[in-house]
Amino acid sequence: MTETYSPPRDRLASPPATRLPVATAAPLSTLRGAALYIGALLGPGLLLLPGLAAAEAGPASVLAWAGLLVLSALFALVFAALGRSFPSASGVTGYVTAGLGVRAGRATAWMFLTGVVAGAPVVCLIGASYLTALTGGGQLVRAGVAALLLLVVLALAAFGLRTSSTAQLLLVGLLVAVVGAAVAGSAPATRAANWAPFAPHGWLAVGHAAATLMLSFVGWEAVAPLTTRFANPARQLPRVMGIALVVTTVLYLGLAVATVGVLGDGAGTLVPLARLLRIAVGPAGLAAAAVAAVILTLAATNAYINGAAAMATALRGDAALRDDSARPGDTAPRRPAARLLAAIAASGLLLITAYGLGLASPASLVAIPTTLFLSVYLGCMATAARLLPGPARWAALAAGLAVLVMLGYSGWALVIPVVVIAAAAVRPARRRPRSSPSRPQEA
Questions:
Q1: Is it the case that residue 374 has pLDDT exceeding 60?
Q2: pTM (2 decimals)?
Q3: Are 220 and 77 in contact (CB under 8 A)?
Q4: Domain segments of the chain: what residues?
Q5: Tell me: the pLDDT tens digits for 381-423?
Q6: What one-character DSSP code corresponds to residue 359?
Q7: CATH number of the domain at 24-426, please?
Q8: Which residue pairs from 3-9 have beta carbons closer than 8 angstroms and sit at least 24 positions apart in sequence?
């Protein structure tokens, strides 16, 4: 029987909040909350994706950046409304469960988990690309370095190492500083001739570039569980997301324009930031970019793995998908399970090997987690369109339509979320036993 969800009489009534230790922590200030959102949006993908987008659409790739920034504003509005209306420590899984039912929530959790796992080897390849740009080496060497980075992070995760939120914020500050130095320092080398022809691969290529760049705009959902830690979410969330949107807009557009305007025909490189830094500060720029890329790779992959561990714990039982079923003291395991680490190692090394042998391009590897996260966003937009009133509903409808368009550009990668949804549907949803008040339990 198909399960349905009947919204409460007050459609904006919040489900009971999950009683996790994070909920009892000190309340988040607006500035620290904004820093955490910026940290969720920015990541190592910013070191690679401008080059991939320029290779796909040429100078017209800046239109993809601009369009996605508009879409990012819609995402911010929708997730702020969801966070205010449904404060939930389970994030996107809780949202989709509330709006579309337990089966949809479980499928969303599986897609999010698979996207995180598939993203780990991509991040390692980014770090490897910047390192080999400094030391030399072809595609096979780059794949070997990426595999080594992945194994190092898995070893650290096996010993229970976690990256603190403070360390993550410091790393984001490092990325912002490096991007700012590259953009500002290389600006004098901008050439107007680099903008012609503007759309060398046709206008449809802008859509392909947008689908690739979407991985840099995933993150509004990642900090959704933190909505329970704001003292006044209704007042703070709009300010927090507004600050995050402004900062990311300046960085993204600045890097996109610099990549095309400065690098010209060389914009379609795997290491655009390294090229810009070399122009800005000389040969030392390559070394600075390599060090920053490796540090960001290790930290981001570590966060990926620990996030996957937390999601895998929630998937042990469907009851964990509902906020009112969590028990006091429920936490993610201190160390990821050996089976999870083995799965990440197997899938990551397989994808990296395929790249090293020339069987998979960087764009195709990026397409896997991007398509999965797009599918997660589609579920969240559908939930918002169903449960939220006013401007948030219209924003969700517009954003959902844009996500559908980008999914249409995903091509073969659409098979991945279909397979994940089918796998999630194989396991029947569990129903919690309900005690009847008319039949008291026996002693």
A1: yes
A2: 0.81
A3: no
A4: 24-426
A5: 999 999 999 899 999 999 999 999 999 998 899 999 999 888 8
A6: S
A7: 1.20.1740.10
A8: 3/101, 3/102, 3/103, 3/429, 4/101, 5/97, 5/98, 5/99, 5/100, 5/101, 5/102, 7/98, 7/99, 7/386, 7/387
